[in-house]
Prior knowledge:
By secondary structure, the protein is mainly α. The chain has helices spanning 2-9, 19-23, 34-54, 66-69, 74-107, 112-125, 131-141, 146-154, 169-193, 197-205, 210-238, 242-248, 255-264, 271-303; strands spanning 10-11, 14-15. The chain contains 14 helices and 2 strands; from the N terminus they run αββααααααααααααα. A two-stranded antiparallel ribbon has the order 1-2.
Amino acid sequence: MTDLSLSNQTISGKTAPPSEARALRLPTQWMGVAPFFIFAVMFLILPTLYLMLGAFQNEAGEFTLENLIALSEPNIVAAYLISIKVSLASALIGAFAGLAIAIAIVRGGLPSWIRSATLTFSGVASNFAGVPLAFAFLATLGRLGLATVILNTVFGLNIYAHGFNILSFWGLTLTYVYFQIPLMVVIIVPAIDGLKKEWGEAAATLGATTAQYWRMVVIPVIWPSFLGTVILLFANAFGAIATAYALTGSSLNIVPILLYAQIRGDVLHNAHLGYAIAFGMIVITGLANVFYIWFRTRSERWLK
């Protein structure tokens, strides 16, 4: 047994390090991802757990369901409905517009520099939100905005006289579309790149027309990625607050602004009701992300 252990330690003239030395080796490979896990625990997991716990407590710290029952109040239900409508409208508009742009730059035969320029801009614009975005739209489409004045003086078209208002439902939806379209482009381009040229050649060899190829091959392959991205865009708009608050203030009753008012403290301040509102948002965005992951898993089978 001794000779066997010695022979295992000497391979090609080299002596294997003792097992004790290997056991004392520090897990340095985890140091690189440690900041990510620390950041996620401190600023995502723990605050989420705190909000979920606070939704089931009253001011005395006792267990209660009153906060969740209060979510059925008309003004809170209306806020959820408006937020869902704004998120869904901006997600659908951004998804279809972004899909058209992605198809054009990937398979439209355009110069390669257009694709690189579009993807670079999309990466920047998808993260452009908050107060700067709200100010940009107010300066462009506000009552005295640049585009509003040009349309009125040059073309005689007063968009506000025809019912448009930047502080309304469609004004906020249009503002959200600014970062929804670039985000759609960034996410859907890899799915379109996954369409193999051999599929088109095989379809042409079998006598399929271009319309049949898109209807029977392209759309079924892209469909899971498209639906998953629509859900992701919905969740992205549903949780946005900085842009909506800077643009509309409290004139539009959406869930993030209602939550901000409850947590910040107003005349009807109720922090635990705010926790319940946040819990409802977590449930909706959580379900959206579950469906996104499911659709993304289905689409990745075709991209391999």
